[in-house]
Amino acid sequence: MCQPTGNPVTVLRYSSMFILTQRTLVQSISQLRLFTSAHSQIRIRWSDGEDRALAEAFEKYGNDWKAIAKHLPGRAVKGCKFRGLYGKSLDTGTPRNVHLHWTEAEDKLLREKIAESGGRCTVSIAKQIPNRKYKQVYDRWQRLQLNGDIKYGPWLSEETNRLVEAIQKHGVHDWEAVSKKVRTRTKFQCLQKYITTNPLIKQGKWSPAEDSALIDALNSYPGKWIAIASEVSKKTGGLRTNSQCRHRYINVLDPKLIKTPFSKEGMHWEDQALIDAFHRFGNEWTMIAQVMPTYRGARACKLRLQNLEQKGLIQKTPNPP
């Protein structure tokens, strides 16, 4: 296993914490205003003219939803993105809820297209698989490469040994390479196994000092989670992985997060959006959170769907094979 590096810093910079708290408060107020505007816009029914304008803008700008929204007065960026992903405007032949199960014909077509491209799974390949998003195509190809031999549940000793060897060879940042070496586990399973079994990695609740260090590091290295994790570990003396840092921020600390409760009165427009996204992406909660018209975070989306299921308001679709 890899050892942590750097000397821990135990003295917190209170002045920086105060400045960051003020900045976060201002950003939260700004985001609340934006959400209030977007909330009212999303609930207005889309007209045929808006659908046509959205389709034309999509043809011109692709997935640049900010540019697309500029051509649709009164529509928020996330509202346009959600309509584009789930509405009828971009592809009238695509059903709203594509079943997650892959057919033999789809697998055959995917293998043929991958072979034609020289063995690489690209966005252009995904576009040739009807009614499938790139993430679905990529994940399916990963499974097919492993001959469907992905295991779940407790790890066998030989799997753990292969994981250790793979980490020694590839390190703790290239989990796709590690997964290929292990052979029977996905990259996410390998990462989770590493996190839960490495005694050097701190688990459980984050301290205020860690949160402050994370925000400070994010300001210095925006989007560079490996560097951010390194800074957090140096400043707090407890090793946190880049995955832990990223999830902590996007699910808890991000000032853009909407933390008001979901509607308590039965099914709500936001709930329907969540269910549609789940039918589309399965248990890919990060992906679901990204396409939601409101910014809730992956953890909040997962908990809300579980709550709806417990109340008997929905029945979850089976996971993909």
Describe this protein with a few key phrases.
single chain; disordered C terminus; Arc Repressor Mutant, subunit A; 16 helices; globular; DNA-binding; 321 residues; transcription regulation; Homeodomain-like_sf; RNA polymerase III type 3 promoter sequence-specific DNA binding
What does this protein look like?
This protein has helices at 14-42, 48-61, 65-69, 77-86, 104-116, 123-126, 134-145, 157-170, 175-182, 187-197, 208-220, 225-236, 242-253, 269-281, 285-291, 298-310. With 321 residues, it is mainly α. The chain folds into 2 domains: 1-29 and 98-255, no CATH class; 258-321, Arc Repressor Mutant, subunit A (Orthogonal Bundle). The longest helix is centred in the N-terminal third of the chain and has 29 residues, at 14-42. The two termini are 32 Å apart.
How is the topology of this model organized?
Layout: H1 14-42, H2 48-61, H3 65-69, H4 77-86, H5 104-116, H6 123-126, H7 134-145, H8 157-170, H9 175-182, H10 187-197, H11 208-220, H12 225-236, H13 242-253, H14 269-281, H15 285-291, H16 298-310
Helix pairs in contact: 8-9, 9-10, 11-12, 12-13, 14-15, 15-16
**CA-CA gap between termini:** 32 Å
Largest sheet: none
| Count of individual domains | 2
Mean pLDDT: 73
Secondary-structure content class: mainly alpha
Helicity, as a percent range: 55-70%
Query: Counting H and I runs of at least 4 residues, what is the number of helices?
Result: 16
Runs with pLDDT <50, length 5+?
1-43, 88-99, 317-321
Number of strands: 0
Beta-strand content bin: under 5%
- Alpha carbon gyration radius: 22 Å
